[in-house]
């Protein structure tokens, strides 16, 4: 990604200060601004580059883990904010829920105003050759956030003109039916598909980013025919492939925007990294990897249930989880303990037998998450880390997902399938994991594959949810959500299929507490 232009940073600052209600966040874009800016491709791309990183931080940092993997049964977490997502006792006052709402409606508001401004600039004679692709980028981001909104909250507001809403002062914005929110998201992605380029520099969106996200949305809606069409279009483009090293996808920013990534949240570790850096390193990294450069407090660790999910020999286990015997020779962390330093002299070791303090690592499940842990810092054999921050991107849509969407869409409502093209897609993912090919598969096979392929990537809860309440209940209630010493099995009820709207939002907009209405 190119560095943001001065104007893009100015707009971003204005946006961050302009919020009266989180779902009508908007910039101040007047006629003078439109005259003076958006005159070059660099200025326009600088504007839309603001959508790729910083505004995602409130969701990406922790809320993504709590919703996607704590709720999904892949992550065990202590503290105060996350255990309610383990036992489904979350309340409308949850900080994770509020943070997620703010992020998605902020991005929705920004993109709405960006589109409005860019369309106006084009009507004033602006160059459509670079304005139209930027508008398509905005539609992609707006489609993605409303896809999340529909899955997380179900019935929810849709706001397409936050500026006008703020000016009128009418904040009685209703919730719309989930199917309408999902349709709105799809229409946005369709606009993105129509306007995005076939290719661009690594990290920027393309037409195939939109096709892949549409395939995911169609799959969620059980529209298997269209999910198959869109995923096949991505496959047939030959623009993507599985990255050879699964572990390498997640442990180094050198592999940012790789051949497998269709859409990633972009991170930078320059200047002040707060908001622009990836903060998963400390939340996942083991305590015995902490150094003077890298913070590590292992807030999120693998659950007992995910530890049982991997097939023998699955390479994704080592790429996703640190357990006894896990090593990374390049990392050479040091601290004030000479015994520790001698133990780590030949590289980092994950050891549950060595005493804690001397290099040993013991937590509740005797494991740590390896994904998005980039190590102890540049001075200790890793890459640059600044306390909580690293420069690795967070992948939201990977080619592996497209392959598994195609396989599942081909399966459709059938009990099982041995379709050759579907098997080729599924087995490509399994081959990278060093697993035997399947000769047929059913929906449980696909769910298993998706779980271990995308563990700790914030996705498994949505895979459970889209199975419907009865199946979701059976999956969740079979999971050990506790520890080896204190197993926990929860009772799951239908009113927990979606999260509550934040209490603070209902206080400002009582219409959110009323029954949903139709948008279309």
Automatic annotation (TrEMBL):
Flavoprotein as a keyword of this entry, yes or no, is no
Q: Does the keyword Signal apply?
A: yes
Residue span(s) of domain RagB/SusD:
298-512
Q: Where in the cell is it found?
A: Cell outer membrane
In this protein, which residues make up the domain named SusD-like N-terminal?
96-219
InterPro entries recorded = SusD-like_N, SusD_RagB_dom, TPR-like_helical_dom_sf
Which keywords does UniProt give here?
Cell outer membrane, Membrane, Signal
Which family does the record claim for this protein?
Belongs to the SusD family.
What protein am I looking at?
A: RagB/SusD family nutrient uptake outer membrane protein
**Native source organism of the sequence:** Terrimonas ginsenosidimutans
Q: What is the lineage of its organism?
A: Bacteria, Pseudomonadati, Bacteroidota, Chitinophagia, Chitinophagales
